[in-house]
Amino acid sequence: MKLRKLWVCAFVVVMVLAAGSISAGTLDDIKAKGFVQVGVNGQLAGFGIPDEKGEWKGLDVDTGRAIAAAVFGDAKKIKFVPLTAVQRFTALQSGEVDVLCRNATIILSRDTAQGLDFAQVNYYDGQGFLVPKKMNIKSAKELNGATVCVLPGTTTEQNVADYFRSNNMKMKPVVIENNAELNKAFFAGRCDCLTSDTSQLAGAKSVAPNPSDYIFLPEIISKEPLAPAVRHGDNQWKDVVNWTVLALINAEELGISSKNVDEMLKSSNPSIQRFLGVVPGNGKALGLEENFAYNIIKQVGNYAEVFDRNVGPSTPLGLDRGYNALWTKGGLMYSPDFK
Amino acid sequence: MTQPSNLSSPAQIDDIRPPLTSIGVIGWIKSNLFNGLFNSVLTLVTFFFLCKIVPPLIRWIFIDSLWSSTSTECRSASGACWSIISANYRFILFGFFPYELQWRPLSAMILLIGLLLISRHRRMWSKTLFYAWTAGLFFMAVLMKGGIFGLAPVESTQWGGLPLTFLLAVFGLAAAYPLGVLLALGRRSRMPAIKLLSIIYIEMIRGVPLVSLLFMSAVIFPLFLPEGLTINKILRAQAAIIMFTAAYIAEVVRGGLQGIAKGQYEAAESLGLNYVQTMRLIILPQALKIVIPPSVSILISAFKDTSLVVIIGLYDILKTTQTTLANPSWMGFSREAFFFLSCIYFVCCYTMSNYSRKLEKEL
């Protein structure tokens, strides 16, 4: 009986300590424990997937590394937690992860009712169509009566049904639970078109028996801004995550890359001086070291490097910058000034 | 009266061999494959399909296959691409365990398999074996976790692949079995409170699928904990598996208990044995022996059920295989990868059922 009381006491103490430690704010907690816990996808090529050696690779993964570099000056002080689609928000709310870099689309209900806060978008995605070239169609509007390969239970399925209905077209959905099997069915000719987010369609196309036999249709039927998410209400930590993503974008705009960042320290451009912390101020305002942006760029690279390394033309996904180009090049990537 | 001597002496009888068509290979074929019209047709049809299936399969597996190439070479080959295994086997088997330290889970697994093999023989069951298991489990934990003896510490979140499957299965089954026996005894108990609790537990757990229990442990349970306090994901999944398997074991054991004749209970009582003694010395040894076949089939299905932890994001061997298949370079070689995986599962499950048959014969 005594032992039992002891256990109850111990449990209460642990709970109080846990409750006490969380109230200090996420950034202080992270600094105290010495690493950032990042929730990632785990099975999405180009965004979050381990390679043959179990090393994490991907655009979301590199975003997480940039956050670690900003907080600790060391991109390796990070722990990745692979999460499924259902788990991801619970994991964030329960404190299992500090930040979620898991291709989560910003939508109103997540930002409000689900208790999340989204930082700057790190990838603009959208749902598109992949069709065989020999079908000889130029637009999704010509798809009336088509059989459509689609994953069940996703917003993807909903979007494509909405699109066909709003254009007064008929479709026959072919739903297959598993992504790999879905792609196989499409390449075997079981459906006229395959629909999914364009980043995933690119992956599917790259493994087609003959990739040049397939083309994308120009229509993008949904908006999928993917962004890192944090718990609602911790503004300081959200600022850190937000300005980390912006730092990647701003560095590209300023022409700073991991290769030239050391020379750039000597630059006379006041924007660059402020950005890299040569002229102090930004770091203190965020609660970070003054050279946090330097550490990000030195260890992870700027947005262009991150993009090209993970999803760019030289990778199996082979994606163009598209909407993810800088605003100066016709894209949507736009960073406020660091001052 | 004398009998004709040439009949009474066995030596005199000529051994007339049966006709050539009823012995040897031909005889075997005749009696087993072509006895009667229906069976002859069946044989021919089966033979036809075997001829259609086997040669291309062997061609695909062995002749046209690639064993250590790049994925690009694989895509133009017509046979199986075993390169997906040779290129990724370390991730498939060990998941996120740091690459340079993967000898540690490997030796932990060898240790575990060695101990299991030794424990196969009943004559080895002794105190020494018990100590060997204790020491073995300690060293396995040290190898996996590190942190002492100069081994670098490895977080349990980095455990994955086959060691994780074994961990969930072996500890899940080892803990579920005694718990299941206790629940079965509880359900048969004369004390109403214990009986009711056991019934509620068993029926509630059996009434939900394992997937929903795992979901509860992974998604809902953390929400009840104070913020910042997290319980290890592996532990949570392990608890769910134990709870689930125990309920099924309990029902099987209860069947065994009910199969024991009433006379056995009465005999034990008349000897003056108390409840614990009756159960331990008379009833359970007989009851558990009867239920070996059904409990082994539960253990086998529980072993395979550990693969359900993929849905809560644990990287057991099924998930590491799926992850490899999501890699664009190796996407599409699912046949080869899952063939490899099913071989591993088959070896484990077959060993279990084989052992249970041996145990049944011995007891």
Characterization of this structure:
The complex is a heterodimer of chains A (339) and B (363). Chain A has 339 residues and is an alpha/beta fold. Chain A contains 14 helices and 13 strands. Chain A has two domains: 34-124 and 225-329, D-Maltodextrin-Binding Protein, domain 2 (3-Layer(aba) Sandwich); 127-222, D-Maltodextrin-Binding Protein, domain 2, CATH 3.40.190. Chain A has helices at residues 2-22, 26-33, 59-72, 87-93, 108-111, 155-166, 179-187, 198-206, 235-254, 261-264, 270-276, 282-286, 292-299, 303-310; strands spanning 36-40, 49-50, 56-57, 78-82, 99-105, 116-118, 123-125, 127-132, 146-150, 171-175, 193-197, 214-216, 224-231. In chain A, the strands form three sheets. In chain A, strands 1, 4, 5, 6, 7 and 13 form a six-stranded mixed sheet that branches. In chain A, a hairpin with a 5-residue loop joins strand 2 (49-50) and strand 3. In chain A, helix 3 packs across helix 9 (235-254) and helix 3 packs antiparallel against helix 13. Residues 12-22 of chain A have low confidence and may be disordered. Chain B has 363 residues and is an all-alpha fold. The relative contact order of chain B is 0.09. The mean pLDDT of chain B is 84. At the A-B interface, helix 1, strand 2, strand 4, helix 4 and helix 7 of A face helix 5, helix 10 and helix 15 of B.
